């Protein structure tokens, strides 16, 4: 069993990609399951096989503790840890080749807090896993935002300690020129050129960021399904050493 986590900033397209990617795997007769880890989501476009909302209600937490939406989500996930045994038992009953894990938009859970990592380790157990990090290309088409999103991606890669694939989501929203420019930024020189004048600190930072990328971000769209073949190939490379897992 392989676990594929989908992380990214709020609204970057995680839930949509989980839905489309599940369909992509089903079309190849691969068994799939979905875990929803977002206690605050109201409506999902898929039917989860495990739903964290069965254990915790972020809205109730918000009312009970007088919290705002962001902090109630953080507290909800903390509270969830007290139900770790039940959660583990329910998840261990899932049978599938690939389990897709949809995560909350409050990405700080996975970038800056231990709960995200503890929760993901609990879910993964002894299985193999990969994290797909979504960079919203509509935001990332601005060079400085691209750099900030790569920094966030590195924070998550470091914190989760899983192999990670960066994805440029929503590429259908870009024109050809924007997409070409965005794709060229996996080359440090091109990226630095687009940033205009930068100081030495930024120059060194960007070069080491680009150097640390295992491979360039994969452009995908959940609206047109572009890039799903490439994403699947990257996932296979990491999880099954290029071999199909059936
Ligand atoms: P949170 O859970 O709130 O963080 O959001 P999310 O990351 O799960 O994003 P979601 O899939 O809910 O998508 C957010 C918005 O972007 C929705 O309006 C989607 O319809 C839209 N969207 C997602 N993927 C794509 C895409 O590939 N192309 C376009 N054009 N829109 C997309």
From TrEMBL:
Protein's UniProt name: GTPase
Q: What's the family?
A: Belongs to the GPN-loop GTPase family.
Q: Which UniProt keywords apply?
A: GTP-binding, Hydrolase, Nucleotide-binding
Q: Does the keyword GTP-binding apply?
A: yes
**What's the superkingdom here?**
Archaea
Tell me, what is one Gene Ontology molecular-function annotation carried by this entry?
GTP binding
